[in-house]
Write a structure and sequence with these properties.
Blueprint: H1 2-20, E1 30-32, E2 39-41, H2 42-58, E3 63-66, E4 80-88, H3 90-94, E5 101-108, E6 111-119, E7 124-129, E8 133-136, E9 139-140, E10 153-156, E11 175-177, H4 182-190, E12 196-204, H5 205-217, E13 221-223, E14 238-245, H6 247-256
Parallel strand pairs: 3-4, 10-11, 10-12
Antiparallel strand pairs: 1-2, 4-5, 5-6, 6-7, 7-8, 8-9, 12-14, 13-14
Helix pairs in contact: 1-2, 4-5
Length: 258
């Protein structure tokens, strides 16, 4: 029931924004996760607690998967599950920058049905519901029009351009840009600000789920690095890379990969 869930996600995201911005990014207490998994701050945990309480109280029959919660196989027994990144782009948050987001999604039997990516410091709320379209602050959005890959602007980290990733031994020609939040990168593709997005490392579901629906509901295409459809709420909640974009650009990127 995507239309039923979307208002809940939007309200929760806006409340999360107020909680997160009550912390000063550079002075918020932070520490590093074990195993080099990156930083976490007191704001991440406060937002996670808020979302867990708010969303699970509203939908007690839904499972729960979040970057900042201990995972449990119990979620695999639920038809629907929340997939949440309380703050996507924690490094950006710590630096006091504005390019971080709350990413909240509902997946039903492996497919995302409702999604929100919210950047409180930029006042940008991207939302989508399966079969209903995608929006930025209530205005419908679409992926960029068709163009050749050589003319495209693609969001990618520098390691994605390493020669061994590509059939020809070199990355194809395109203009590269970058944003620190994976969820935001996908939302920007859905809004037509960029033609494509690529990450070739294993990616956590909570970084991808919300943005994936925004891309597809905006008329784009998305898959993993082997061109396989994305499925969510997996026992191991990781995806084998992500390639997204306007259909022609996404197809060209996928075809060029080794």
């Amino acid at each position: 029931m995507p239309v039923h869930d979307l208002p809940l996600l939007i309200d929760a995201a806006r409340i999360a924004g107020r909680v997160a911005t009550s912390f000063a990014g550079k002075t918020a207490q932070r520490w590093d996760k074990p195993g080099g998994a990156g930083p976490v701050t007191e704001a991440d945990l406060a937002v996670n607690d808020l979302l867990s309480t708010t969303l699970r109280r509203a939908r007690p029959d839904y499972g729960w998967l979040s970057e900042e919660s201990d995972d449990s196989a119990d979620r695999l027994n639920h038809e629907r599950v929340f997939i949440v990144d309380p703050i996507d782009g924690t490094r950006s948050f710590v630096e006091g920058a504005r390019t971080w987001a709350h990413a909240i999604a509902v997946a039903e039997r492996g497919e995302v049905t409702a999604a929100v990516v919210y950047l409180p410091l930029r006042d940008r709320l991207y939302a989508a519901a399966k079969g209903q379209g995608a929006w930025l602050n209530g205005t419908p959005i679409r992926c960029a029009p068709a163009r050749l890959l050589a003319d495209a602007t693609v969001l990618a980290a520098k390691p994605a351009l390493h020669a061994h990733h590509w059939k020809s031994g070199t990355a194809p020609e395109f203009e590269r840009s970058y944003r620190p939040s994976l969820a935001y990168r996908l939302a920007l593709v859905g809004a037509g600000r960029f033609d494509g997005m690529i990450t070739l490392r294993r990616s956590w579901e909570w970084d991808i789920a919300a943005g994936a629906l925004i891309v597809t509901e905006a008329g784009g295409r998305i898959g993993d690095r082997k061109s396989q459809p994305l499925r969510f709420n997996n026992p191991d909640p990781c995806l084998d890379g992500v390639i997204a974009g306007a259909a022609e650009v996404q197809t060209a990127l996928s075809a060029a990969l080794a």
